[in-house]
Amino acid sequence: MATQLPDIDFTLEFPYTRTTGPIIGPFLTGLRDGRILGTRVGERVICPPIEYDPDTGATVGPESLVEVGPAGTVEAWTWVAEPTSKHPFHRPFAFAQIRLDGADTTMLHAVDAGSIDAMSTGMRVVVRFNDERVGSVTDVHFVPGEDAPPAPAVDDEAGDVEIMEHLIGVRISEPLLPHRVRFLEGLLEHKILGQRSPADGKVHVPSRGYDAINRVPMLDAEYVEVADRGTVTSFTEITPIQYHGQTETEPYIRCSVLLDGADTTIGGVDVRDISVDEFRIGMRLQMVWRDDISFDDPDNRGFGLSEEVYERWEPSGEPDVDPELVKEHNF
Fold first, then answer.
1. How many C-beta neighbours within 10 Å does residue 308 have?
2. Which residues contact 221 (CB under 8 A, 6 or more apart)?
3. 30, 100, 204, 224: which has the fewest Cβ within 10 Å?
4. Model confidence over 70-117: pLDDT tens digits?
């Protein structure tokens, strides 16, 4: 059964869009067009360019832009032996602080050196422009050497780069914890398992592996099966707003349910087949299980039951519970 539960491995991402401004815009446009630009600030040339004098805070205008490179000297570096999906290469490479010819500051960028033995402080590197470029720092990388071939041509009619768009993300990878595996395995068998606290006997659903109130770990011998029906303790109507990746379009109810046999509520229960006018605290609900339960993206932080588990929740037909009796479970 455990083989049906994959380890946690997902990427949390969100889009990031911003205008480029009078200095970074021309810098990115230059990279797309095959040039590297810095800003002349006083007696120094700073690359990558900045919009202010770091000594005085005075504004630096576009007239200060000058071309630098295409070769430079490595002043510091580190080797990336195991690149991730966010790195510019799928093979080992170096990140280096490179002082381009004509610049007085260093630029952090990737060096495709082939091996760690090819890297050294003081070595000379030269820029390589990608065949396809959009106006981003990832349009270029560096290789050992002095000679720079001409940058491959790009669309001559492309305008200045005025907007930057990035998908910011972080990959999260970790094994499922034992109590989480036991809970999910139970759901695959249409069983809802909680754990009884050895401190006060209360049944926690789902268990987090410990009793946070009494600060004691749960015991493997204290698993308890609870019912798949319970009482509404709190709810809210959710009206979806549109954002990147949004798939919800219709309002629905999200509630907390105190399952029979449990002392803690499950949260995040989505109810789509009962109108908000008919919904109420104290209402008795019955869960209708899915026949084809699977967990594509399990996690260790779940606090309820997802729609991977149930088809719907429906009225059980039982009399309501007095809301006063469940008010301590309002969430």
1. 15
2. none
3. 224
4. 999 999 999 999 998 788 999 999 999 999 999 999 999 999 999 999
What tokens appear for 292 in the block? 């084809």
- pLDDT, tens digit (0-9, with 9 covering 90-100), for 108-140: 999 999 999 999 999 999 999 999 898 899 999
Residue 92, both tokens: 């080992």
Computed on alpha carbons and rounded to an integer, the radius of gyration of the chain in Å comes to: 29
What distance in Å separates the CA atoms of residue 236 and residue 253, rounded to the nearest whole number? 6
Whole-structure pTM value: 0.59
DSSP code string of 38-103: EEEETTEEESS--SB-TTT--B--GGGEEEE-SEEEEEEEEEESS--TTSS-SS-EEEEEEEETT-
Q: What is the DSSP string of 93-141?
A: EEEEEEEETT-SS-EEEEE--SSGGG--TT-EEEEEE-SS--SSGGGEE
Q: What are phi and psi of 222, to 5 degrees?
A: -100, 25
What are the residue boundaries of the structural domains of the chain, listed by start? 21-161, 176-329
Question: What CATH number has the domain spanning 21-161?
Answer: 2.40.50.840
Put residue 282 in one of left, alpha, beta given phi > 0 → left and psi -120 to 50 → alpha: left
The answer to whether the beta carbons of residues 331 and 265 sit under 8 Å apart is yes
Q: In which residue are the tokens 């005085």 written?
A: 56
Neighbours of 204 (CB within 10 A): 22
- The CA distance from 102 to 67, in Å, is 8
Cα distance between residue 22 and residue 2, in whole Å = 56
Query: Which two tokens mark 66?
Result: 């000058």
Among 154, 145, 228, 218, residue whose Cα is nearest residue 186: 228
CA proximity to 68, closest of 96, 94, 31: 31
